[in-house]
Fold this protein.
Amino acid sequence: MKYKVGYLVFVFLWSVCSVSHAQVQFNFNGLGRAIVTTNKLSGPTLNGDTVTPKKGVSGYTLFDLQPNLVIGNTVRANAILRLRNPFGSFYGASTVFAFRQFQIMGKIGKVADYEIGDIYIGGMTKYTVFKPEEIWHDYESDIHAMRRSVVEYENFVKGNMWRLQGVQAYSNFGFNKGIKSLNVRLFGTRTNASNTQGTPDRLLVGGRLGIVQSQYLAVGVNYVGMLDVRVNNDSVDYSNNVLTGDVKLTLDREKFLVQLAGELGTSNFKNTQVYSKVTKQYNDYVTDIDFKAVYKPLKIKVFGAYRSVGAQFTSPAAQTARLNVLQNLSLFETINNATVGRNPTLYDRLTDEGMYNRSVAPVLYMFQPEYGNLSPYGDATPNRTGITAGIGSDTSAKVIQAEARVDLYSELVGEGVADKRKFTSLRGGLRFNLGTLLKWNRILSFNAGARQENTTRGGEAPIDFKSTLIDLGATVETFKKLDLLFGVKLLNAKGNEYLTLRDQFNLINNYIIYNLDMNEAIISPGVRLRFSERSYLTGTYNATAYKDTKFFNYNYKIHQVFFNYTLVF
């Protein structure tokens, strides 16, 4: 319904400007994509299985056309019109026409900018509005990064911002004395529409006030609230408020840069079950201090951090996991004679377009510790305290980009027992642009990255869980704009953990004993023909093997041939 309204508004704006004297500009941009895959499932788990589908050919073609309307310097509007046709349909059968996006943007005089419709909410802090990564992939290969980009495009992933429907306004004021500038950002979105089952409207509102005093000092205040707007016969009354303040000190000289930043804040959670008259309410805090120093002649940086996030610190817009691991998978959804849902793997996280969350959740989702146990909900993960230290290349380094980092953290309070988990994480990587070093006009680059996490706990419910993630890759431009690609991902996890289950009050109410001894490998060779910076044709072969001898007791392989033609204009 909202896209029908958007279409009418877009037509209305076009009609108005057609009869007015405003300067009007009208242009198009968009994206076209064709994907074809052939898939095969095999392995010992499939022995004797006569029901589970083991082969398939799938894919789709789509065309996203974005008309852009500009009226003078005050109003801009755009919509993305999508045509999507699944592979294998003929004569237009199963073709879907839909509005993928609608936005109106403009200026209120010379004071503020505004956006209405499908908007990206961001520009705040990692404890207020932040979409955390689903897994560490800073040094993954180009061939896997391209595959991830398809999934991210389909799910409107843009950095660490949330894409929601609503309105926001922002403005920046410059000053001659006292302070350098003042910026204000306000937003309001609707995350949960009311219905006849007693669910109220749920709004996500907030904003930031930032002050740049000088090149040395900047401060800010952030607020985010997730609130229910009560209607008749509601079964729940929920509210969550987060308020933080941040400060940044910067000393920038010719040869070095030193920066010290900190954030301190609180959260307040309240949930009332109307019919049972049960109310849960709690407050908690967050403290974060970050340090960075860069020596510019050598393009080297050192960094460190201290973080303490309360066990009941609740910030939905910063803690909602990017992926929903309970979502049904798109590729070989079931196994074991089609009676059991296949668990999400590293390969599914890289390729499945349906696993991503598009809304902010009021409670913490379940997660799989083998993909990240230290901070499964980003830096805002509750019940964590500890330090980070590392060294790496400055972002301006063009030949070698490298980083090494250690995280030493623990829980603030034990979960279910008095003993606390301890977390140790080592991670680092290298990206070497040999073509740049040799001053070739062709791409020749290599990458390698690794992350190891250890989780331990003593006492009456001991934990010993380890996971290792490795990325390797290469990109070689053989002929002009013709690249050979190669990528490897390896994941190993072994040990025992306890998966926590939470109730509607975001409190732990049960556990699942999780014993894992798994290995997963993804090997992907391919070729890419580049037509422009963002338009290309790729053909890749992906071989993935998954084996777990304990919790899931699966041993299978997936082989996939993947063709992707993408045109961006």
Q: What stands out?
A: DSSP finds five helices and 25 strands in the chain. The CA atoms of residues 23 and 39 lie 52 Å apart.
